[in-house]
Every structure is written in C-alpha cells, then in structure tokens.
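Re: the request from the purification team.
They wanted to know what the chain is likely to look like in 3D before they choose a buffer screen. I agreed to run a prediction and write the result into the notebook, where they can find it.
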Amino acid sequence: MGLDQYLSASEYISRWDYSPDYDRSQNELFSQIVSQFDVDVDPSGFAGLTIDFPMGYWRKANQIHNWFVQELADGEDDCRKIFVRRENLEELLSLCLQVLEVRYTPQGENVAKELLPPTAGFFFGSYDIDEYYYSDLENTVETIDRCLKSKFDYFEYQASW
C-alpha cells in the first residue's frame, strides 16, 4: 500500500483504412492484435483499439506527484487520470535538472523545497530531501528522456494509493 504513480501514452489503431484505395484486407495490424485474444468482435460496430504503453513508474515519489497535481490538476488530488503534454514533461524535466544541479551545495535543499517540494499524503513515503528524493528525480529525468524520444505528444499520469 502506498503511492504508486504511472505515466502512459496511447495509440489508436483503426480497423478501417480511409485511404482512397481502401481495402479491408490491408489492415493487418488490427487483425493481428485482435487474433492474439480469444474474442469474437462485432464486425459492424467495432472501429478500432486503443493500446496503452507504460512510459514511467514511480513509487512514493511524492514531490513528482505533487507537481502533477498542482500544475496539471488544479490541486485536485483524487487519483484521476491527468492529461500531460510534451511541454509539461519538458517543464518538469527542467525543474528536476535544476534541483539535481545544486543538490550537493549549501542551497540545494532550499532549491528543492522551492521547486519540487515533498508533499504529505496517505502512505506517500518520506518527506525528507535525501538520497531517495534525489534518486526519484534521477528516475524522473530518465523517464522524461524516454518520453521525449518517443513519437508521442500526449501522455496520462495517474496515481493510486
């Protein structure tokens, strides 16, 4: 039990090909995916699939959770999915790098508290700015780098506890 955090991206795969030379047999990807499951789909009303790709995971990184909630969910922390743009991830990346840059300096803890403060919550983990706090930021940098190298422009963040 505790704060688990997920970042994902989605891709919609249509069963229809809307190109001028439309041919139902051309959409092999849709058929390949559906064939992996023992499901009899309605051919008349089933237009496509949405596939979710896991892009990132955190465990009790409450400073990262707090940023998503405050910046992108109007401060409403209710475990709902939060829409995230590429630009949002770039902003979070910049904050993480700023904090990591000064972590071994006398002002490091103050910068961390100002830019990415820990937050209290139901089993949210430690509120200390310590090696685990900075490890969460390093994980966030790696996660965001992976996202920014991907083809996706939009993501979803969701936490549960």
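For the purification team: The longest helix spans residues 131-149.
Please add any questions underneath this entry.
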